[in-house]
Amino acid sequence: MTEGRLVYFSGDFVPESEARVSIFDTALMYGDMVFEMTRSYNLEPFRLRHHLERLYAGIKILEIDCGLDIDGMEAATLETIEINKDRMPAGVDYQIMHNVSNGPMGLYGSVFPEGIKPTITINVWPLTWHLAGIADSYETGVHSVLTQQQSVPARYIDPKIKNRSRIFYQMANLQAHRVDPKAYALLSDEDGFITEGTGNNFFIVKDGIIYTPEGRNVLRGVSRGAVIDLAAELGIPLYEKNIEPYDVHGADEAFVSSTSMFILPVTKFNTQPVGNGKVGPTVKRLTDAFSGMVGVDIVDQASEYKAEAEALAAS
Length: 315
Hints:
The chain is built from ten helices and 15 strands.
């Protein structure tokens, strides 16, 4: 591995330490930046096109003229991966992060004599530390805490646009961590129905059937879609429906999904055990099937990365 990863920054490649967004960028002024995080398995991006399609839906809705069509963005992404191939730890899977905004506001144009252009960043980052932090949770499960902070209603900000205006997520995290410093925050809508976590989608299992909140008030996660597809392949019934806290208390299992981890079991909800408080058979079945599909034992990989992170910290 050579030193110094490079970031695609609005058409150029620059060292990570030099990839800086202007203080006059609309992303900072308004939070109107869309983003995506994709990850690799066996060094191959998983559902990259799915992530880019969602990115471009947000780009269209926010009227961002980024200067690249989706094929151009995909090509720039693959080039970013290739140029960093020898700059990454050998054999370690990585995340790919896209951030796109309109760039600096026109009001501050005098600061940019070369002209204002959109901000586009694409960076890759090893998943060692991401997965090290959740490695034990595949076996123990996580604690989901329903917070006082609710989701922003779709009539105000459509949650299906993956954007950087996420202060309500942070408020929910702060509230959940007052209950349990390691808790995963879980939000609800105005009617009290569960929506999503702060960066993950939520599922419960009852009598062998998987239920997940309807897609209207949640980010329609790419991993959520993978769970839906995988359940269909395995013949596990899955329905999108309104879920109340009462339903979670009566569930046999629960779990969350997100890009970096695929799924993690939820074994505790609002301080009480979910089912018998242990990882259930449906979660294990989905985890094993997904590992087979991507050719990586995701539980073992997280454990290996934890050991590597501990070794690095001790060195």
